[in-house]
Write a structure and sequence with these properties.
The chain has three domains: about 60-515, 7 Propeller (Methylamine Dehydrogenase, Chain H); about 525-640, Immunoglobulin-like (Sandwich), CATH 2.60.40; about 660-755. It contains 13 helices and 44 strands. The strands form eleven sheets. Strands 8-9-10-11-16-15 form a six-stranded mixed β-sheet. Strands 35, 36, 37, 39 and 42 form a five-stranded mixed β-sheet that branches. β1 (about 60-65) and β2 form a beta hairpin. α12 runs antiparallel to α13 (about 725-755). The structure holds [4Cu:2S] cluster and dinuclear copper ion.
Length: about 775
């Protein structure tokens, strides 16, 4: 490769405003390493994460967005952020909470009739088939307001929010069963299960309860079915994380707890705080639940209805043998079932140990009726020694455990030590430790919750980002650190600041398993997956007025909105339905009306409605908010809100430009020249094997779609020219040219793609 003269580059660089000593003037790898102070190790790490332009990442991660109430999607190993998905919180870019259908999704999360427009998301879960991630759906919980949301991974949109009918807060969800029959969530802070019932804290032991809910998932509908969902009443032990059995332990679920002391703190009453009272005992309880049998009991009518929801009461659960407890040390946090389902690993949090429970031993104890005691509610307690296979001391503050593709290998986060411990749970041996940045919470391996973890990478989700990034005020971003786990020793590769909320858990899936759609069937309401009542075909755009209700049935296509004028009277209730007629990939149009607080994102094929009361007289521009084409700025219109009873006083039409025959001829020449460009591009495309490139085939189809629209319009300018109406002749000819420009744009894009992707000449 010919090297540019260093001085010349420096000159360009300084002209561009960079310092002359900037790295841009370095032209060998050695120069860059030297100038940036990088080591060989840094270079290796960079090479392992760098994804050059045109290449894609191997895994896609779905991160909880913490208090942002959203989901953050990023790619691994590049750690590039791909998308934020609005879930419990309105998200304007996607129109989420600003168009009618998405408002309905958010309204599903109302509690006692009140809007709750934020959430504290903790644990995302990908739907599974036979214990493996299938890439179809994502579930995520809201700890603060006990809710669960369903995201469809065909379009990465939130489809449903359900409110837990018996809890006041939850934490141990979302976790899915091996075939996503149920999505599980566990309560956190105990409260009376009857929703609005008051009981004093003095009655904590008698009236306050925890529990777990199993939400029935209807995969065909892609929705949770509250009528087929149920809960299990549990003692007020502050249930925490959960996991579902798989393989050997299929049909069972596990939930730990951190305050089996049932402590009620409060300096107001002269009592030490919760932190002292909830950590006083050496052990808490792991709840072991036979959910399959519980579901059968509910189906057999053995549940009690609380708030119209089936709750299997503890008494029944004990009698029927579906609920057991095992002591676990000490105020534990994560409970994670091994990929084969044979072991359940509980991290001690306040204990240096992780405890490896054996499902086989647990079952043997249950079968033999071998219990060391009963808890105050009569739940049989299996002795720890009868359930634990081994305990391993890993370090201070073990929290969460994830699994490798290699058998018996686990990774546990150590919160206090700020380390990741790699260990062998079959042999009870620590293998490696890696210091991460401060105070790691969760960690996550690729497909780490499935029966077939993919290994390769681990992400450490650190709570504090002190001294890592350029400071941006007292509130720091979170720090997700990418770690290579393919070798014996873990290698830290990359620090990614995550600037939205405090994510808790993340799940990552092989990118090849995701099959997101490119477009909707024309007229689809994306939030219901059904045809939208406002869907409109090209040529059928209309404005319907009934009393004070005005309903617009409009369409969007590069680069105009139909209609371009909407006239209403002040006080009218206006609904604007818009269908995106585009079929081309990524041709999204946005829509807003000035000052009416509405916004829609309308992807190809989608229909969206925005609704508002035109309560202010005046002139309100509306426009497309996505830069969709060269004529995007012209994708505009006016909402005219007229005073009541207003009559036009001036009868003159809109101002004419007085175009002449010469103008018309000039436009026709422009049209002919552009057609020549199109023809040459078409000649190139058809001279190569473009049909082997689906992306190009789609672009070519779209290009001919655009060009096809010129036929009718050509007839219009010719008719006007026959009547010597040069004004209209010229303007319609201009419109022909607009379609040609879009055609040419697509053609050139297709040509570039073919050239860059090695298209071959065909005869
Ligand atoms: S929790 Cu946050 S570090 Cu909600 Cu899963 Cu453990
Ligand atoms: Cu459509 Cu901008």
């Amino acid at each position: 490769m010919k090297r540019l003269n260093k001085t010349a580059i420096s000159l360009v660089v300084s002209c561009m405003g960079f310092g002359a000593s900037a790295v841009w003037s370095a032209d060998t790898l050695q120069d860059v390493l030297k100038e940036r102070g990088l080591s060989q190790q840094d270079l290796l790490a960079a090479a392992k994460t760098y994804v050059p332009t045109g290449k894609r990442d191997e895994f896609v991660a779905f991160s909880s967005g913490g208090q942002s109430g959203q989901v953050i999607v990023y790619a691994i190993p590049s750690m590039r952020i791909l998308k934020y998905i609005g879930v419990f919180t309105p998200e304007p870019w996607q129109g989420y909470g600003f168009d009618e259908s998405s408002k309905k999704v958010l309204a599903g999360g109302k509690i006692d009739g009140k809007d709750i427009t934020w959430g504290d998301t903790h644990h995302p879960a990908i739907s599974e088939t036979n214990g493996e991630y299938d890439g179809q759906f994502l579930f995520i919980n809201d700890k603060a307001n006990p809710r669960l949301a369903v995201i469809d991974l065909r379009d990465f949109e939130t489809k449903q929010i359900v409110v837990n009918p018996v809890f006041k807060s939850e934490h141990g969800g979302a976790f899915v069963t091996s075939n996503t029959e149920y999505v599980m969530e566990a309560a956190q802070y105990a409260a009376p299960l009857e929703n609005k019932k008051f009981y004093p804290l003095e009655e904590f032991n008698e009236k306050y309860r925890g529990g777990v809910t199993y939400w029935k998932f209807d995969r065909k509908e892609g929705r949770l079915d509250p009528s087929k969902s149920f809960s299990l009443e549990l003692p007020p032990y502050s249930q925490d994380l959960s996991d579902l059995g798989k393989g050997a332990s299929e049909g069972w679920s596990f939930t730990n707890s951190f305050c089996s002391e049932r402590y009620v703190g409060g300096i107001e009453k002269g009592r030490p705080p919760y932190e002292a009272g909830c950590s006083a005992k050496d052990t808490d309880y792991l709840h072991v639940i036979n959910w399959k049998k519980a579901a059968e009991l509910v189906a057999a009518g053995k549940a009690k209805k609380i708030n119209g929801h089936d709750v299997l009461m503890m008494e029944t659960a004990i009698k029927e043998g579906v609920l057991f407890l095992i002591p676990e040390p000490k105020s534990p946090h994560g409970v994670d079932v091994t990929p084969d389902g044979k072991n359940i690993i509980v991290a001690g949090k306040l204990d240096t140990h992780v405890s490896v429970y054996s499902f086989e031993k647990i079952q043997a104890a249950i079968k033999a009726g071998k219990f060391e005691s009963k808890d105050p509610y009569g739940i049989p307690v299996i002795a720890m020694k009868d359930a634990v296979a081994t305990q391993v001391s890993l370090g201070l503050g073990p929290l969460h455990t994830q699994y490798d593709s290699k058998p018996c290998i686990a990774y546990t986060s150590l919160y206090v030590d700020s380390q990741v411990a790699k260990w062998n749970y079959c042999e009870g041996k620590v293998l490696d430790k890696l210091s991460v940045h401060y105070n790691i919470g969760h960690l996550m391996t690729m497909e780490g919750d499935s029966t077939k973890p993919a290994g390769k990478y681990l992400v450490a989700m650190n709570k504090l980002a002190i001294d890592r990034f350029v400071p941006v005020g007292p509130l720091h971003p979170q720090n997700h650190q990418l770690i290579d786990i393919s070798g014996d020793k873990m290698q830290l590769l990359y620090d990614m600041p995550l600037p939205l909320g405090e994510p808790h858990y993340v799940v990552a899936i092989d990118a090849k398993k995701l099959k997101p759609a490119v477009r909707y069937k024309v007229g689809t309401d994306s939030r219901t997956d059904k045809p939208h009542t406002g869907a409109t075909k090209a040529g059928e755009e209309r404005i319907v007025k009934k009393g004070n209700k005005v309903e617009v049935f409009g369409t969007l296509i590069r680069s105009h909105i139909t209609p371009e004028t909407i006239e209403v009277e002040v006080g009218d209730e206006v609904t604007i339905n818009l269908t995106n007629l585009e079929r081309a990939q990524d041709e999204t149009h946005g829509f807003t009306v000035s000052t009416y607080n509405v916004h829609a994102s309308i992807e190809p094929g989608k229909t969206v409605a925005v609704k508002f009361k035109a309560d202010k007289e005046g002139v309100y521009p509306y426009y497309c908010t996505e830069f969709c084409s060269a004529l995007h700025l012209e994708m505009q219109g006016y909402l005219l809100v007229k005073p009541k009873g207003w009559k036009p006083t001036k009868t003159a039409g809109l101002a004419a430009q007085n175009y002449t025959e010469a103008d018309y001829k000039a436009t026709l020449k422009k049209v002919a020249d552009t057609q020549a460009i199109i023809d040459s591009v078409v000649a190139y495309i058809t001279s190569v094997n473009y049909k082997d490139f689906p992306e190009v085939v789609a672009m070519v189809e779209d290009a001919f779609d655009q060009l096809g629209k010129t036929k009718d319009i050509k007839a219009k300018h010719e008719a006007a020219s026959a009547k010597k109406d040069w004004e209209n002749a010229n303007l319609w000819a201009e419109q022909v040219w607009q379609y040609q420009v879009k055609t040419a744009d697509l053609g050139l894009r297709a040509k570039t793609f073919l050239e860059q992707n090695g298209a071959k000449k065909v005869k």
